[in-house]
Amino acid sequence: MVDRLANSEANTRRISIVENCFGAAGQPLTIPGRVLIGEGVLTKLCRKKPKARQFFLFNDILVYGNIVIQKKKYNKQHIIPLENVTIDSIQDEGDLRNGWLIKTPTKSFAVYAATATEKSEWMNHINKCVSDLLSKSGKSPSSEHAAVWVPDSEAAVCMRCQKAKFTPVNRRHHCRKCGFVVCGPCSEKRFLLPSQSSKPVRICDFCYQLLATGEVAACQASRSDSYSHSPKSSLNDVSDEDDDEDSSD
User: Fold this and answer.
1) What is the pLDDT of residues 71-88, one digit of tens each?
2) Phi and psi (nearest 5°) for 25?
3) In the CATH scheme, what is the code of domain 152-213?
4) Which residue from 106, 108, 185, 207 lies 20 to 30 Å from 142 (Cα-Cα)?
5) What pLDDT sits at residue 242?
6) Which of 102, 79, 76, 71 is nearest to 89 (CA)?
7) Residue numbers of the chain with a pLDDT score lower than 70
């Protein structure tokens, strides 16, 4: 089916419409063999609160952006190569329902669909696209992925020292290795994580010690899945602001 659609006029037209919605600031999406599989609005769990984002699933990439005018204009385009993607289901918790993790070496985050059926369809289509890509390339599934950031609302105090309370002056920071919310004194170190940045990035003291001694895997293994316990955010609390987790902290 995908191969048959690849060179169809209808597929070319659909992709062109997506390109136009992102405008000149977006990257070109039309390439030979690329097929638009589906699209829809998902709620993305960002650093400060859940936010509505428009997602487009192609046979080789996942694209998402901020909604400016529904079905007409989007900005802040993000493109994720599906070859590097793994996904995991998330248990329902309060208002956060029908969710799954999208994990890549560069960035990982949680998204939520409106219904269980929609969640199942998204996950099945993503897994099928990833499987087809890996089958064609002969590559193995990605074993490395960036940590999913713990939302700010889940940490009133530093998750490492358990002492420093966060205030407008004592700001929250995120360790790029484990995803914990930490205070400044607990995250003064920088370490080069090539999959995430060409420059050294902020990590907590705990992860720095493990990385410095070569115990890389233990950093992420040291934290439980942040989505197995009580985020207090409401899915109705969404906006079209920039992604908070793209900030420097």
Assistant:
1) 899 999 999 999 999 999
2) -75, -20
3) 3.30.40.10
4) 207
5) 37
6) 102
7) 1-4, 6-7, 216-249
| Cβ neighbours of residue 154 closer than 8 Å, sequence gap 6 or more | 181, 226, 230, 231, 232
User: What token pair was written down for 26?
Assistant: 């977006």
Q: End-to-end CA distance of the chain, in Å?
A: 44
Domain ranges within the chain, ordered by starting residue: 1-137, 152-213
Q: What is the pLDDT of residue 106?
A: 93
**Residue 23: half-sphere exposure toward Cβ, Cα within 13 Å:** 12
Which tens digit of pLDDT belongs to each residue from 194-224? Answer: 999 999 999 999 999 999 988 766 665 444 3
Q: What pLDDT score was predicted for residue 48? A: 87
Class of domain 1-137 (CATH, top level) = mainly beta
209 three-state secondary structure: helix
Angle at CA of residue 57, ends 16 and 179, nearest 5° = 125
Sheet holding 36-45, edge to edge: 73-81, 61-69, 50-58, 36-45, 108-112, 99-103, 86-90
137: burial class by Cβ within 10 Å (0-12, 13-18, 19+)? exposed
